C-alpha cells in the first residue's frame, strides 16, 4: 500500500512541476516583450532559424490500468509514443500525439491508448533550452481485465476525455535528428467511482491511468538556415 501511495504522489509532483515550468516560460516571454517595448534602447528579439516540421517516434515502459488508490489491476508493459506537428512560436510546438500501451495477462490482454493535441514549451535559455514541458488534452480508450476494481472478475472498457503531462530533454545526435528521453503521465477523467474492497481508504474509478518513460527519436525540419544542433530560441542583441 505504501509503495502505491508513493507512486501517486510522484505523479502529482510531476504534473505540478510541468505546470510551473510552462507558466514560468510564459511569464518569461511576457517579461521580455514588456521590457523591449518599454526600454529607451529596445533590444531586438531575433528568432533563431525557424524549425517547422516536427516528427517523433519512441518506445518505453509504463504502468497502466484502472485508476485505483491501491494500484490494483495495474501492470507494467511496453509503450509506444508517436507525434507529428509544427513550430507554434519560438519557444513552443503543437502536435498530434498518440500513445499506446499493451500487456498480455493470464486473464486476457490489458491495453490503453490516448490520442491528444499536445503543446511542448521550452521556457529556458542556455544549456537548459533543450528541456521542455508538455501538456495535452484529447481522448483515451482502454480495456482492462479486472480482479479487484470490479466486484467480479470481468473486463473494464473505458472511453473518456484525457489529459497528458510530460517532461523531456532533446539531445542533438545528427542533423536533423535528436534523441529525447521523456516521462509522461496520461489519465482519463469522468469515469464512475468504484470501491474495490471494504476498506474505505481504497477506491477506484472507471478511468485509465498510464505513467511511462522512454526514449524517442525526433526530426526537426532545420529550415533555410539549417540550425540543427540548437533549439530555436529568442536571441537578444
Compact description:
This protein has 237 residues and is an alpha+beta fold. It is built from one helix and twelve strands; from the N terminus they run αββββββββββββ.
Q: Structural class given helices, strands, pairing?
A: alpha+beta
What is the terminal-to-terminal distance? 55 Å
Which whole number gives the mean pLDDT? 76
- H/E series: HEEEEEEEEEEEE
Beta-strand content estimate: over 45%
How are strands sequenced across the largest beta sheet? 2-3-4-5-6-7-9-11
Shape: elongated
Radius of gyration: 20 Å
> Main sheet, how many strands, which sense, barrel?
8 strands, antiparallel, barrel
Beta strands, count = 12
Uncertain runs with pLDDT below 50, 5 residues or more?
Answer: 1-7, 25-50, 232-237
Residue share in helix: 10-25%
How many helical stretches?
A: 1
Amino acid at each position: 500500500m505504501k509503495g502505491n501511495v508513493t507512486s501517486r504522489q510522484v505523479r502529482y509532483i510531476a504534473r505540478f512541476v510541468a505546470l510551473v515550468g510552462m507558466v514560468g516560460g510564459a511569464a518569461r516571454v511576457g517579461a521580455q516583450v514588456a521590457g523591449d517595448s518599454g526600454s529607451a534602447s529596445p533590444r531586438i528579439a531575433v528568432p533563431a532559424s525557424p524549425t517547422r516540421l516536427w516528427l517523433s517516434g519512441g518506445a518505453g515502459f509504463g504502468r497502466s490500468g484502472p485508476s485505483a488508490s491501491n494500484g490494483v489491476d495495474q501492470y507494467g508493459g511496453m509503450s509506444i509514443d508517436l507525434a507529428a506537428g509544427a513550430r507554434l512560436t519560438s519557444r513552443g510546438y503543437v502536435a498530434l500525439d498518440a500513445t499506446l500501451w499493451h500487456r498480455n495477462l493470464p486473464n486476457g490482454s490489458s491495453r490503453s491508448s490516448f490520442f491528444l493535441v499536445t503543446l511542448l514549451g521550452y521556457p529556458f535559455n542556455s544549456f537548459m533550452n533543450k528541456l521542455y514541458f508538455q501538456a495535452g488534452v484529447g481522448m483515451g480508450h482502454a480495456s482492462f481485465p479486472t480482479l479487484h476494481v470490479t466486484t467480479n472478475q470481468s473486463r473494464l472498457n473505458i472511453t473518456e476525455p484525457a489529459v497528458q503531462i510530460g517532461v523531456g530533454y532533446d539531445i542533438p545526435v545528427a542533423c536533423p535528428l535528436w534523441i529525447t528521453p521523456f516521462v509522461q503521465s496520461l489519465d482519463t477523467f469522468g469515469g464512475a467511482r468504484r470501491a474495490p474492497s471494504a476498506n474505505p481508504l481504497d477506491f477506484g474509478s472507471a478511468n485509465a491511468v498510464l505513467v511511462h518513460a522512454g526514449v524517442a527519436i525526433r526530426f526537426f525540419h532545420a529550415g533555410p538556415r539549417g540550425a540543427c544542433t540548437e533549439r530555436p530560441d529568442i536571441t537578444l542583441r
